[in-house]
Amino acid sequence: MGHAEQQKRRYTPAEYFALEEQSVVRHEYFDGEVFAMAGASKAHNTIAQNLVIALRSALRGQRCQVFMEGVRLAVQENFYYTYPDVMVSCAPADFQDEYLVRQPVLIMEVLSPSTAEYDRTEKFSQYRKLASLQHYILVSQATWAMDWYRRDEAGQWIHRLLTEPADILDISDLGLRLPLVEVYEASGIAPIRLGPPTTR
Fold first, then answer.
1. How many domains does the chain have?
2. For position 121, which CATH number holds?
3. Domain assignment present for 124
4. Residue 127 domain-assigned?
5. Which of 1, 30, 107, 180 is most buried, with most CB under 10 Å away?
6. 112: in domain
7. How far apart are CA 136 and CA 148, in angstroms?
8. Ranges for the Putative restriction endonuclease domain (predicted)?
9. What is the pLDDT of residues 103-161, one digit of tens each?
10. Do β-strands 157-162 and 146-151 pair in parallel, antiparallel, or remain unpaired?
11. Bridge partners of 29?
C-alpha cells in the first residue's frame, strides 16, 4: 500500500487510534507521524485475495487466523503501527483483541511502485524485531516474482526468490504449499519472459 500523504502535525498513540476510528482512510503510524495510505490496484487486490484464499485453506482446522490489509499490526507498541496486506497469527492473545495483531508468524506485502523499496528495507528492519515473525514475503506486481524470507532456528533470515510458474511457496509449519501460478491467477500480470541472448 502506498503512502499518499504525510500529515504535518504529530500525534500521540491515543490520538492516532481516535483518528482511525473516524477516518475512512487508513493511516500508518511511526513515532508520532501519521501517513495516509493510498488505494490499491486491481492486480494488488487480486493477488492479496489469492494469498488469503490459499492460507485459509491451508490453515483450516489449525488454531491460526488469516488477516487482510484492514487489520492493524502493532510492530512496536505506542511507536509503530502498520496495515500489512496479509498476516497470519497463531497467538491466542491476538484472537482476543478486536483490532490489533501483535504476534504474527507470517506477513505478506504486495509491492507497489511507491513503497517497494521501503517494504524491502526500513519496514523489514522493523518487522524483524517481532519475535514471533517467522516468514516475510514480498510479492511483485511487475512480474511473477516472490521474495521469501524465513527465520531459521539460529535466528538468521534465509532468502529464496521464486520466479518460475512451477515454483512453490512451501511453508511446512503452516501446511502451505502454494504454486506461484496460483499467486498470480487472474491478476493480469505476466511471468518473467527470457529472450534469446544478444550477440555483440
1. 1
2. 3.90.1570.10
3. yes
4. yes
5. 107
6. yes
7. 6
8. 14-173
9. 999 999 999 988 899 999 999 999 999 999 999 999 999 999 999 999 999 999 999 99
10. antiparallel
11. 34, 81
